[in-house]
Specification:
The complex is a heterodimer of chains A (247) and B (252). With 247 residues, chain A is an alpha+beta fold. Helices cover 32% and strands 33% of the residues of chain A. Chain A contains nine helices and 13 strands. In chain A, a hairpin with a 2-residue loop joins strand 7 and strand 8. The mean pLDDT of chain B is 90. The chains are: A alpha+beta (247), B alpha+beta (252). Chains A and B meet through helix 4 and strand 9 of A and strand 12 of B.
Chain lengths: 247, 252
């Protein structure tokens, strides 16, 4: 038995005079499981907000948990929908968004990921990131072209190499994590998705008290305070979820 | 005949173009109908003008090429980049280097001169804190007795404005396969990615010239090293190694 016991979330614009280009999907029931997601519209291109909204709307309407072979067609459908934005305004021809989706069911967690939002799962006293950023820096590191030390001094940390967009080649990550490998001793599972504007602040000091880490409401409040105290650097969104898995 | 500012421009031949602009060979007349000479005119395509980002890119191409005043860079003479139909008039190349290589009428001394001109032009571009991002033989033209770098369509200004917050963007490999450095495939460009392209350019220059190939092999290999830090760190370093080869060849 799978029970959603706590959810907390926020999504805010970087500043009050700018549009929030992140869109979020709070946990929705899907085939006995739950689906939730964050899409982060790519800010350099007009139509970013519409792109992230469209991706979330599409994900919110899927009727069953996609199998691995259904994921690419699903993402391509969203990509095709995005190409329709050009009809609204020719400037939207490059509109793009990231998309990170978590699907929790009794047997485990499915992760579908394009871009640089992150999905974390609580493991003992830490949050372990289970998504790989589709960023230029990550690719340069993996290709052995630059070291981590060299990259720290280089600009381009926020340059993506893929996103959902008409004009970009699609690259995505799909992972499935078995429930037995990720639940804690009490049968709880904590899954968080953050956009880059939120995890930038989490990663600077990736720690709260154990009670806060175990409680989505407290975690969300504490992270929000930290971001607002330091001053947001981008739109910032979080969905923090806690599930109880019965035997 | 087109009247552009105080000049009259008569297109006489289409020369092709890229995604954003088309290039024509033109005769340029002043107000007294005196023929000033033959030039190349690049005009923004009408379908590209509607897209603000394309317009910005075309304007940037004109501004940055105009900023590079150097004997080995195609010079822009007149332009109107703010009009509804942006355009600029520049030096006309007689022939591009790719054609010289392919048609086989490219003597060893001319090849050496072309390489020297490429290096001098690139040193100037990098001094302006710009990256060309599309160095290849077809983007180098002969004008009189000089070889000049042309086509600033992919040029990048490496100095970002302090007022602009970097927005998330998508890095895309742009340029020409073979000339594109491994990191440029992921959209990362630097002096070293231009140096990689220079290495491929030099390799093309060795076509049907085994002696030149033997002399340039170490330079080409270092320019085209897989890891950017293993390449030359500046075009000046290449020039220093190349100059003795150039002098030996020219005195032969």
């Amino acid at each position: 038995m799978l029970e959603l016991t706590n959810v907390a979330a926020f999504t805010h614009s970087k500043s009050s005079n700018k549009t929030n280009e992140d869109s979020i999907l709070l946990p929705l029931k899907l085939n006995g499981g739950y689906i939730f997601a964050i899409a982060d519209g790519v800010g350099s291109y007009p139509g970013a907000k519409l792109a992230s909204e469209l991706a979330i709307e599409y994900i919110s309407k899927i009727e069953k948990i996609p199998t691995e072979s259904e994921i690419e067609p699903l993402l391509l459908k969203i990509k095709n929908k995005l190409s329709g934005l050009e009809l609204i305004n020719p400037e939207f021809f490059q509109a793009a968004t990231t998309l990170t989706v978590g699907v929790v069911e009794e047997t485990g967690v499915h992760i579908i990921h394009v871009g640089d939002s992150r999905l974390y799962i609580k493991s003992e006293q830490k949050l372990t990131c289970h998504t790989k950023d589709h960023t230029q820096h990550q690719k340069l590191l993996e290709a052995g072209l630059y070291t981590e030390r060299q990259l720290k001094k280089m600009p381009g940390k926020n340059i993506l190499v893929t996103a959902l967009s008409k004009s970009i080649n699609l690259e995505y990550q799909y992972s499935f994590l078995m429930m037995k490998d990720i639940i804690d001793e009490q049968g709880n599972l904590v899954v968080n998705i953050m956009s880059d504007g939120a995890y930038e602040f989490w990663e600077k000091r990736p720690k709260f008290s154990l009670n806060t880490m175990n409680n989505p409401t407290a975690f969300s409040t504490s992270l929000l305070k930290r971001i607002e105290k330091n001053g947001p650097i981008d739109d910032y969104s979080l969905i923090s979820t806690k599930f109880k898995i019965g035997i | 005949m087109l009247v552009r500012g105080s000049y009259k421009i008569v297109p006489i031949e289409d020369m092709g173009g890229g995604s954003f602009g088309f290039v024509q060979k033109v005769e340029l007349y002043n107000q007294k109908d005196h023929l000033c000479g033959l030039f190349a005119m690049k005009t923004m395509k009408s379908n590209a003008r509607e897209i603000e980002s394309f317009r910005k890119r075309f304007v940037r191409e004109g501004h940055l090429q105009a900023k590079c005043s150097h004997p080995n860079i195609v010079q822009i003479y007149i332009c109107d980049l703010e009009s509804v139909e942006p355009w600029f008039v520049m030096e006309l190349g007689e022939i591009d280097v790719e054609k010289l290589i392919i048609n086989g009428k490219f003597p060893n001394k001319e090849r050496l001169k072309c390489i020297l001109d490429l290096l001098l032009g690139m040193i100037h571009i990098h001094q302006q804190k710009l990256l060309h991002r599309d160095i290849k033989p077809s983007n180098m033209v002969k004008v009189g007795d000089k070889y000049k770098i042309a086509d600033f369509g992919l040029v990048k200004d490496t100095v970002s404005s302090p007022e602009t917050t970097p927005l998330t963007a998508i890095g895309q490999g742009m340029g020409t396969p073979g000339f594109l450095a491994p990191e440029a495939v992921f959209g990362h460009f630097s002096d070293q990615s231009d140096i990689y392209a220079i290495g491929t350019f030099l390799e093309y220059m060795c076509y049907l010239d085994d002696e030149l190939a033997r002399k340039l092999a170490p330079i080409i290999n270092k320019c085209r090293a897989h890891v950017p830090s293993d390449r030359y760190q500046s075009v000046n370093q290449i020039l220093k190694i190349f100059l003795p080869i150039y002098e030996e060849g020219m005195n032969a």
